Recover the amino acids of this structure.
């Protein structure tokens, strides 16, 4: 599969993932150091928000590149199936 990841997109996504990674490392340290449960939960929620932001960016890129390409080449069903699959997975929290 051909991907469409320009350098601006990659830089933005890599930066966000790096932040999320740092947050996860901080979360692990909090657990190891027996920090207060509510503080750990706050950090965990921050990690979820960071990953959600990454997902939003990836989906935006996918819709503006791959989906358009698939529609132009007559592969609307593939595009629809993929998006519905991701949507259904996202509802299983």
């Amino acid at each position: 599969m051909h991907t469409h990841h320009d350098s601006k997109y990659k830089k933005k996504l890599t930066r966000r993932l790096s932040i999320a990674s740092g947050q996860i490392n901080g979360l692990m340290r909090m657990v190891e150091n027996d920090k207060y449960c509510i503080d750990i939960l706050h950090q965990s929620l921050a990690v979820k928000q960071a990953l959600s932001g990454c997902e939003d960016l990836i989906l935006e890129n996918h819709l503006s590149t791959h989906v358009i390409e698939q529609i132009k080449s007559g592969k609307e069903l593939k595009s629809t199936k993929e998006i519905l699959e991701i949507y259904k997975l996202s509802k299983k929290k």
